[in-house]
Amino acid sequence: MTRPITAGVDGTEESLAGLAWAAREAVRRGRPLRVVHAWRFQTHEGIDAGDAATQGQRVRDAMGESVRRITERHPDLAVTTDVLEGDAVQTLAGAAADAEMLVLGSRGHGRIIGFLVGSVGQQVIVDAKRPVVFVRSGDRASGEVAGREIVVGQQGDPEDSAAALDFAFETAAARGATVRAVRAWTLPPMFVYSPEVLRQVDEAGGLEQYEQKALAAALAPFRERHPHVRVVEHVEMGSAGQVLLSVAGTAQLMVVGRRARRTAVGTRIGSVAHGVLHHADCPVAVVPPA
């Protein structure tokens, strides 16, 4: 079965930007597009909002108009639509399960503030078993021109970032883009407090060479699988979030892995993904582990 690229829409400007992005990506990858609206019947005191059938029809009519614009722009694209009644998080996470990726819109306010990812979006990231891409309101295809890179974060052992690297290389291959693979590193605390250890490190040529080897090892299978994709290896000392954001200006898409964890006060998606989602000014893909 060919997995579709699925876009979650709700009629807002940001979700329509996500739908447009999803349609372009579906065309590039030769995949169908599925458009999903998660809807729940609601009543309002003092307002005649109509019964469930009426509300559902309004949703379908609005969604049909949005899809019509997409099919006019991409007449050969296979598009299906679903209005699914139920909780937004559960519905969208369920829709992602059978998709190549789930694309959602996210309100953006410029380079400083970046994205505003609401509670639904954050929970979908945690629950989705497939990559989730967030597209800012006002995103334009002009950001996908040649010269702008697919930036992907790599950390830990090769298997730790394998899913994110796979997504980045597949996307770059479909677009004819360059992959910039970023590995950030910091000195272990024991090195900071031991001048003797630091001296030995300096004599050995520093630690960055080992980080470069680790990045090269993680990239090797993907370079072999995609020999035509140009790769830039970027190793830099600093926090992963800061280093990734420092190169966001060259990116048409930022790809990060997901490290979600549940706590007593709610679910957390990891500091790197959280920082990139809130401050990058390009679309961001959050990829769960394989």
UniProtKB/TrEMBL annotation:
<feature type="domain" description="UspA">
    <location>
        <begin position="149"/>
        <end position="288"/>
    </location>
</feature>
<dbReference type="Pfam" id="PF00582">
    <property type="entry name" value="Usp"/>
</dbReference>
<comment type="similarity">
    <text>Belongs to the universal stress protein A family.</text>
</comment>
<dbReference type="InterPro" id="IPR006016">
    <property type="entry name" value="UspA"/>
</dbReference>
<feature type="domain" description="UspA">
    <location>
        <begin position="1"/>
        <end position="136"/>
    </location>
</feature>
<dbReference type="InterPro" id="IPR006015">
    <property type="entry name" value="Universal_stress_UspA"/>
</dbReference>
<protein>
    <submittedName>
        <fullName>Universal stress protein</fullName>
    </submittedName>
</protein>
<dbReference type="InterPro" id="IPR014729">
    <property type="entry name" value="Rossmann-like_a/b/a_fold"/>
</dbReference>
